[in-house]
Here is the input.
Amino acid sequence: MFSYNDLIWNTHGNTNYRFSLLVFYVLQIIVWWRLFEKAGEEGWKSIIPIYNVWIAFNIANPGSSNNILWFIGSFIPHIQILVVIFMGYKFASKFTDNIIIRILYMVFPFFTGFLLAFSDQFQYSPHDQ
Here is the structure.
């Protein structure tokens, strides 16, 4: 008879899940590293937690005095959702003037990040394109 306890000991499913998360995280590091380098920052800054968020805000809003407020807002529950969506749009706007790509980056940053990072069509510009 199959019981709930059998699910707890199902390590095969857990291993596949953990492996897929590891692949996802490694690919995300590669994408962010490339985007940071395109923006003129050093790639290693993308792998340091919290500091990478600060650098991403500075890439999205270069020279803005409001970055500290956005940064603090990114750690407040519920408000962080709005901050991530808005900053995703601002971040993508530094690489493309295409509104569709900007919106796609807001909704699907993982997949659209590959496009921005590895396509020669998209180059960093410190001013909104």
Summary: The chain has a mean pLDDT of 87.
